Amino acid sequence: MSGMRTVFIVGLLCVFAGIPGAAYTAESVLAPARSHARPDERNVASAAESTLAPDIGLPAPHTNGKISVEQALKERRSVRNPLPTPLTIEEVGQLCWAAQGVTDVHGHRTAPSAQAKYPLELYVLAGSVTGLAPGLYHYLPSSHALHLVSGGDLRATFVDRGVGQGWVATAPVIFVLSGVPEKMASMGERGRPFMWVEVGLAAQGFLLQATSMGLGSIFVGGIRPAPAAMVLGLPPKEEVLAVLPVGHKP
After folding, report:
1. 58 lies in a domain?
2. Residue 100 and residue 119: Cα distance in Å, rounded?
3. Which of left, alpha, beta for 164 (phi over 0: left; psi -120 to 50: alpha)?
């Protein structure tokens, strides 16, 4: 992410409270989850595996945490040296829900979205998770489930090609937030900036949830979007926006 873009995003987040609330009122019903069974240049067999593999239902999220929002805000810190200790599938599910989970029957999510467009997608690069095989997964908010995109541990490949910061690959799980700008097209030139605001909001919810669970994470914005998208096998009109490695604090 360029310095100018970083400043722009921070500025937008700072003034978010001043944006008319009507633009952020979610009135649409929940959109159906899309399929991610798309062959790419990595491995056609993996694409076939993705098509045939059943979605993995995640444990129901908890909504009565042990610490307050205020305490999580106070304790949150960027963690660049997470321990390799495995996470559990319950922890992965809770973090998925915090970033993009559905919170009511109308399909509203944990992070607000301009005109309820919901342009974000969430991926999980699982390396060391109790109860979940290593692989690349796509989070399905409507069913609170993971869809297998590709089997095998892709953390090192993703970080080497798409991030360039070796320490990120040491995290037992790497979450990736991507966006589909086309979903914001009806908003004209304002659409893309609002998508960047939304990824910041989703990431903040994720980071506070991680803190409340005794985990550490960080928003990594210095990425190589095109190579990162290629490793993930994203559709052409979807782009990587943020990388969130997470693990236990040292």
Report:
1. no
2. 11
3. left
Q: How many other β-carbons are positioned within 10 Å of the β-carbon of residue 87?
A: 25
Query: What are the DSSP calls for 53-67, one per residue?
Result: SPPEEPPPPPSS-SS
Better-predicted residue by pLDDT, 47 or 167:
167
CB of 63 within 8 A of CB of 101?
Answer: no
How many percent of the chain have pLDDT more than 70? Answer: 80
Burial of 74 (0-12, 13-18, 19+ CB in 10 A): exposed
Measured between alpha carbons, how far is 155 from 158 in angstroms, rounded to an integer? Answer: 5
Q: Is the pLDDT of residue 3 over 60?
A: no
How much is the pTM? 0.81
2 pLDDT higher than 50? no
What residue numbers bound the domain in which 163 lies?
Answer: 3-15+75-248
Residues contacting 8, CB < 8 A, separation 6+: 193, 196
CATH of the domain at 124: 3.40.109.10
